[in-house]
Write a structure and sequence with these properties.
Chains A, B: This is Transcriptional activator protein FnrL. The structure is a homodimer of 248-residue chains. Chain A is α+β, with helices and mostly antiparallel strands. Chain A is built from 9 helices and 11 strands. The longest helix of chain A has 27 residues. The termini of chain A are close together. Chain A binds a DNA duplex (30 and 30 nucleotides) through helix 8.
DNA sequence: TCCTTTCCTTGACCCAGATCAAGCGCAGAG
DNA sequence: CTCTGCGCTTGATCTGGGTCAAGGAAAGGA
């Protein structure tokens, strides 16, 4: 999700400030009102499963509030997070029956949903929506591939720094804070969830967070609130070649 | 790419047996002839770069013949393969200027290409194409996420088995061999390329391939040709929960 | 108030896979 | 036919991160 779109999302339809614009930034008013009639909201508590892997999925939607995770689990219990869903992120696969992943609410989550069939029908008729979804999916694909580099080739310290910089980038985009004297992020994940995202154990995550703190790369305010005094420094630690990077 | 589509691809337009159907399985003849006028072919030698990361990319296309890889590289030289392109796979990002990855020909590769701008224009006008591309991109996203589990949580032995089963699945789909008495695959990758795909070193790849051979899970015929006497056994070794799996 | 639970930290030790190093085998060049 | 180089294998050793284990701290709940 690009900055400009996020801004548009903020000034979007009053009932659902993010979703309409996120799904289709260029819909005309007819299409907007059709979307309006179709939509409904659902709230999930922290820890609740939104979708189980293998489940039949009869809706698609966007996260409006809160944070959800996409995870895959092997029979023996090893789990890997494959996506992090922040407000404005889309959930669901138009044209697919089932979900391949577990989707779980990390905090309380509000979703804006559409029943899948009518949504798919509308997608067929309104090219803009399909086009927008293609762009969003390409963004997700880029993010997934960037994460493959993190998982396959980075050290534990670099992995932590990568995760923090991605979360920092996304939350500064959403909150639009200038961040001249450092960025503060509210870490929405437990150490275990971070470990599942990074392909590490929670002990290693804890140790590396402590190490980054000891070395002055980050400042902890409690367990979950993290201050990043120097973003450049963090990106260096992450081994990122450019400050830019892809939308996640 | 689904089995049914691959079959359709095989009986598709004579000049380019795979591409038209791959891009749009449901185009009517007008659209097909427009595609026909736009297309051109390019051949790349083994080892040649098709696209450099960061390059402006003025075309999109499909692999018709040969194998190409998608890789990401850090400044210090660590590299991670993020995709494997077999015949019928699509290359390029409609709506994007540059490529985020290096695309390299592993064998001799024939690509069927379209200049990006006209292709994008056509995409706007023919919803089927956009829809088809969305489906293909969703497949790639699923494959990327499945790979995240491999990279983040599997052991070296499981990683090798996962790679072999994915290549076996894909090549049996393409070649349509029944494979009752085992599957034979022509490994199109060096040990180093396999290592880059799996987030390992080439020594570890070599050792684990030897171990799988010793344990009778695979049979080597030279360095590159691999026989899989029992596919179920291999999938077990890969730690895959189901024999099914996603299209890659 | 104390107790329980959940999340986190830190230490001690171990092992899978990395690193360093040597050598094999085959294909193409001379 | 030998030489050379590349891809591959295998051995020896090292180490980053996993595993096991012991608490600490903060947030409810009784």
């Amino acid at each position: 999700m690009l900055l400009s779109d996020t801004l548009m999302a903020k000034e979007g339809c009053s009932a659902c400030p993010i979703r309409h614009r996120a799904v289709c930034a260029r819909c005309d008013s007819d299409e907007l009102s059709r979307l309006e009639e179709m939509k409904y909201y659902r709230t999930y508590e922290a820890g609740q499963h939104i979708i189980w892997s293998g489940d039949r999925m009869d809706f698609v939607g966007s996260v409006v509030k809160g944070i959800a995770t996409l995870t895959q689990t092997m029979e023996d219990g090893r789990t890997q997070m494959v996506g992090l869903l922040l407000p404005s992120d889309f959930v669901g696969r138009p044209g697919r029956e089932g979900s391949a992943y577990d989707v779980t609410a990390t905090t309380e989550v509000v979703m804006c949903c559409f029943r899948r069939k009518p949504f798919e029908r509308m997608m067929e008729e309104t090219p803009h929506v399909a086009h927008r979804l293609l762009q969003m999916t390409l963004d997700e694909l880029d993010a997934a591939r960037e994460w493959m580099l993190v998982l396959g080739r980075k050290t534990a310290r670099e992995k932590i720094a990568s995760l923090l910089s991605i979360i920092a980038r996304r939350s500064t985009l959403l909150e639009q804070q200038a961040a001249d004297d450092g960025v503060a992020i509210d870490l929405p994940l437990t150490r275990e969830a971070m470990a599942d995202y990074l392909g590490l154990t929670l002990e290693t995550v804890s140790r590396q967070v402590s190490a980054l703190k000891r070395d002055g790369v980050i400042v902890l305010d409690g367990k979950r609130r993290i201050l990043i005094p120097d973003m450049e420094r963090l990106l260096e630690e992450a081994g990122d070649d450019s400050d830019g990077g892809l939308p996640v």
